[in-house]
Amino acid sequence: MLRYTLMRLGIFVGCLVVVWGLVYSGLAPRGLGDSNGLWIVLLALVISAPISLVVLRKQRDQASERIVQRVNRAKAGLEANRAQEDAADETARTRAQEQTS
């Protein structure tokens, strides 16, 4: 997951540098008034999103699989704890019934 995040950040920073260069060289519009910095960041986000979607498909799928595995392990652990609690509760109820009988 960290690898995917760093690669995504790298693509964004690369797009940010390219957009900044294009804006300051006059090839891309500068934005309105004092919004130049925000314009550059938003334009870089819009450009980097589809690039990341295509280029990082394999890494995104791998990260997704790892997350699913972690969730499944956590669910299995919770189910095991519930089973232990249910067994202990059933044992206590059985003993209580035996004592009252």
From TrEMBL:
The protein's name in its UniProt record: DUF4229 domain-containing protein
Transmembrane portions of the chain: 7-25, 37-56
Native organism: Streptomyces heliomycini
Compositionally biased region (Basic and acidic residues): 82-101
Disordered: region residues: 77-101
Lineage top rank: taxon: Bacteria
Claim: Disulfide bond is one of the keywords in the record: no
Pfam families for the chain: DUF4229
Keywords, ordered alphabetically: Membrane, Transmembrane, Transmembrane helix
